[in-house]
Amino acid sequence: MKRPLCYICAAFVATVFICLRQNPLPEASVAEGSRMTVLGEVDYKEYKEDTLILYLKHVRQWNPGKSKQNTTEGEKTAGVICYMEPTAAEPRLGSVIAVEGQASGFRRARNPGGFDAGRYYAIQGLDFALYDAAVLAQGEGYSAYRECLYDVRRYLEGIFDRALPERDASVMKAMVLGSKSGLDAQLRQLYQQSGISHILAISGLHITLIGMGLYRLLRRIRTPGAVAAVFCVLLMTAYGDMVGMSSSAYRAVFMFGMKLLAGILHRTYDMMNALAAAAVLLLIEQPLYLYHTGFLLSFGAILGLGCLYEVVKPAGIFAGSLSVFLIHFPILLCTYYTFPIYSFVLNLIIIPAMSGVMGLGLLCLACGCLPAAAGFMLARPAAWGCRLLLWVFERLCSLSLMLPGADWIVGRPDSRRVLCFYAAVLFLYGAHQYMEGINKRGGFRGSAVKLRLPFGYKMLLILTAVSMLASRPAAGFTMVFVDVGQGDCIWLETPAGHHYLVDGGSTSEKNIGRYTLAPFLKYTGTARLDAVFLTHLDKDHISGVIEMLESAQGNGAAGGIRIGRIIIPEAAIRDAAYGTLARLCEENRIPLEYAAAGDVFASGDGLELSILHPEASYEAASRNAYSMAIKLVYTGKHGQLGALLTGDIEADGEAAVAEQLAAQGWRCQLYKAAHHGSRYSNSGELLAIIRPQLTVISCGADNSYGHPHREALERIAASGSAALATKDTGAVFVQVRGGGVRVECFLEE
To answer: What's the pTM?
Structure first.
């Protein structure tokens, strides 16, 4: 059997995957907001702005009032992250310290596409965080080796800080030293959207450039091979430890060491065996790496190059990118829900240029280590070279995102389609290997003609697999009440793939557009919103939409998502909020339309949205007063749904709506509670007329208003309706399928 180690390692990885699927990730419990004292070992430390961040491992709760024998008794946890003010007596790496702070658990995702901090930190071995922390005591012992590496890294970071502007220095510190805490958020997002964020990770490029360059230099000056190899492996291991030894750095250092070891032992180096062994060793240490995007992309890139490069070699200069794409595409869709189309071309330019950036960056550091005046005089040309190349990178990324279809929003594919995609890739690899085996044995039936699968057929299969993975067949009608904290946001999808948004804002969540709305829309594959209905212009209903419009850069695509039109009440007060919205719509060439009672918006495939309030001539005393009330009716082959969406409508608006619906004799299955479940809305009269089966209340946990109010909940219950609050359930899904209506909550109640 060829490469038996690979098969054994693959079986191990599959076993770990199955075990993780059958045993969901447990949630660490901590008394939120409680003061806690813990004892643990300092594993890593970094500065972010004016905050010192300590990562502790082998942590136990500590009670200093107990005897020394019992000081470390308590529940043992995997790790804790501590945020504190910088201190002159900075704890040393490897030392055991006692820390007191305010405990806080990591937030789990509350919407599809949301960032799951709980899982992210669990992969790093961290259970919870301590804020406003202070060191109470520190042990004598520490790791001199790790503390020395930390001091070296801080010194080198200082060289970049002095030689480069802040923005460029943050990029070089991330690229060369693995320090991303100060990286500009907009620049990080630009690199990610362009498909070149991998250049910020310490990986094989760094190890090859530094390690192999040094090894060849040592061999050229006639250093014995074994001595040169051992020295370089030790140096690269120290470099990996200095930059944090991420999964990609560990893989690169391990494979580098295996390659040099094979040379010393006069054995053939097999890249795939080394890759498999590195994966197994990492998973033994932390099985949750199988959920880590960096791990999957790093190992996936080498897997693609090692197994699929020869399969797609006729693609020429795109062969490397295509072989990596065949592994990365499903991973990227499952993580970011989009794919940057022009990354193929962009990486052809940027990856070779990265050697220049790394070389100039290392030269800048080397010169900066010389005596002050002479050192920085020599470092300046290298710094200028870095700035020029980084400027070129940024311009290329910006230009690529301006091209048509730059950000291909696909949405998150289901497991079945991911398996089908990889089955197609595996078939290509298997067919290639089978035919190569026949050719090596003398050809098919003794013929001199080489057996080959035509490249056109390979591309047809690849395009079919990509199309299958990227397709999102709509089935029925879906309504999602997005959990935006103290605010409102409702997403609608019709069977024909039309998408609408009703409100999108929050007063309790910061950057709701970037961190909640845009990820959710991309998760669902919403590349275009046919219309955005803003019931009124309070911040808790429009802040996320405003944020997305501000990021649209004048092209009508907010975060890559195009908006067809924005609809507000005709009775809206022309205040500052209205002026801001009107200006942003004009700048982005998005039509701003007005609606009044009696207007009906139809999707053409079964969805109708009828405006019940306010009248065009309505004179509002406040924004809440002119809030739109929308009657939603879906009728199609998949079933029927009636819903009443009320924004923050007030008493007179509710009375007008109740009068209209009573005259129609209309009852609904779903009611979106007015004003987040306020006692001053959701009147018994309105509820008695519509008699909803389910009421959804959109509000934030521990909000200062006390929503939902007890009186409103009592009136809702009296109407015979069940009630769900997003603060408890996360996003609420209402789906019309198979003739019925199904309701699901993102979080288990």
So the answer is: 0.91
